[in-house]
Amino acid sequence: MDIAKRLQDYGFHAPTVSFPVANTLMIEPTESEDKQELDRFCDAMIRIRSEIRDIETGLMDRKMNPLKCAPHTQRVICSSDWNRPYTREMAAFPASYIKPETKMWPTVGRIDDIYGDTHLFCTCPPVTDQLY
């Protein structure tokens, strides 16, 4: 999940997670993706792996790091309250090709996906409203 969320900071739509195989990412490039875009995706994955290595070796905190806090919304980055042990630049612009004038900002930060899946509630109007 962390890798999928962090990919949003690199400008990619988060891939499908744990379907059809648990604990995996389903990455589906299409014929519409050119080599430059595929190279950019590979670069993002290599950079994310480097961030994971920094967590493994203790260079980054295990809980407060760019992966665990991803995606980073514009609201979070622009807030005067920045209490994270990494820079705003690392959060929002993790690669030199990500520019402020062309960045695709995630609209929401992290949500508790499991909670939503295990605590279902109907937001539909009552069935009686559907009767003519």
Automatic annotation (TrEMBL):
InterPro entries: GDC-P_C, GDC_P, PyrdxlP-dep_Trfase, PyrdxlP-dep_Trfase_small. This is Glycine dehydrogenase C-terminal domain-containing protein. Signal peptide: none annotated. SUPFAM superfamilies: PLP-dependent transferases. Residues 2-72 form the Glycine dehydrogenase C-terminal domain. Keywords: Pyridoxal phosphate. It holds the Pfam family GcvP2_C. GO terms for biological process: glycine decarboxylation via glycine cleavage system. One of its GO terms (cellular component) is mitochondrion. GO terms for molecular function: glycine binding; glycine dehydrogenase (decarboxylating) activity; pyridoxal phosphate binding. It comes from the Eukaryota. PANTHER family: GLYCINE DEHYDROGENASE (DECARBOXYLATING), MITOCHONDRIAL, GLYCINE DEHYDROGENASE, DECARBOXYLATING.
